[in-house]
């Protein structure tokens, strides 16, 4: 059914102008190295501490813009089982959904993804099977059935890698050397093997049951990630432990961090303990964040107390205590931590959370505290049942990620909510110079306005993955060549024609002197008989479309 939209008119624009001119806070630069017909995603941004808000014009030349390097990925299909995750869907029983009795077929793979959707997303059953499962499993199907390992390709916005491999993912760029850390395919034998700088990181000395390794962050001589091994009870399953490498390449030594006492990989219910580290800081001692397995084999957001790195295998694990309830939560994870010892993460609900089986965002104010408390993100965009992704936190307590933009009930629905990228500041807000520091915003609201050097209305930013200390952001946007039909956050592209929007990697660079003016919302036109709306009423209706952040 065609939806008639109320568009901003010249009269409305005049009314809006009376509120004062405004300038965008960010320029948007997009990257599509293989063209816009293939999906491109922004992943990470090189660390940088330039003061883009006041002291440095970070958009003054191509050279300056290019110096803020981002990594990006092009994908032919969704990979289904993320190349970054230790287990499918990050579940302790994730391999149960990808067990095909040693005789995989396309139908069996789709059925496995459908079962996960029915259990943990609870969309309409037909939508789970006919839409979600087919789309999400496409890359994994080619990998399993056709041995096609060329689904994903990574690159830099400026420069190139000194390492190569199939399905190579990058999680971190070194600020000094520009070298990268991540994992890639290793022939037919290993789906993922960790690398840092220009070489594969050493595999463990005991290779008898080795399955995979992942690397996420490098700090000095240390790299954190995980080691996966074949499950002792069922060879179709893998268990994993958080790991730390000391040194470079094949000469590095690797240690695996123990699970909680009582956790076991030999249970018969397909529940397998998992663990992994995602980030690391040094604050007197070394601390890593990620998740670990409790004595019930539940994957729970955790801090690993690594001390001076002399006994990594026996490092103490502290859990974010609210999320140890295995009847309410399916898994939780800390994804990023800053030098202020503030960490961000997400928790996946096992139960209906007011209309969705949500992946909710939270932060830990102090990872060195004796008990790790969980604080939800504040602001109207973080409503109770919102699904989110915790992207990154910088050392100014600025956080980016992804959050549901729509708020309809997802359980039983055939329409998952639309997403938007967000930015906010948590904990101590005074250390940030950003104009957005006192609230939470969709990034689309910070690209709206005059004075942008780029055509910002060509983009609706759906995910923000990283932010450095210069407040430069990497992410992914929907791209409408020539601009969206209106300035509204929910505007159509080319009248809503199918295929008009493309997915591109984006880099957002701060603009000095900008102000915040949220984008309007295109509203459904209200038909009236026996009269018409006057110009003042029309202007008021348009103004009501503007969202105020709390």
TrEMBL record:
Short name of any one Pfam family annotated for the protein: DUF3466
InterPro entries: DUF3466, GlyGly_CTERM
UniProt keyword annotations, A-Z: Signal
Signal sequence residues: 1-23
Entry keyword Signal: yes
Record's keyword annotation contains Signal: yes
Protein name, per record: DUF3466 family protein
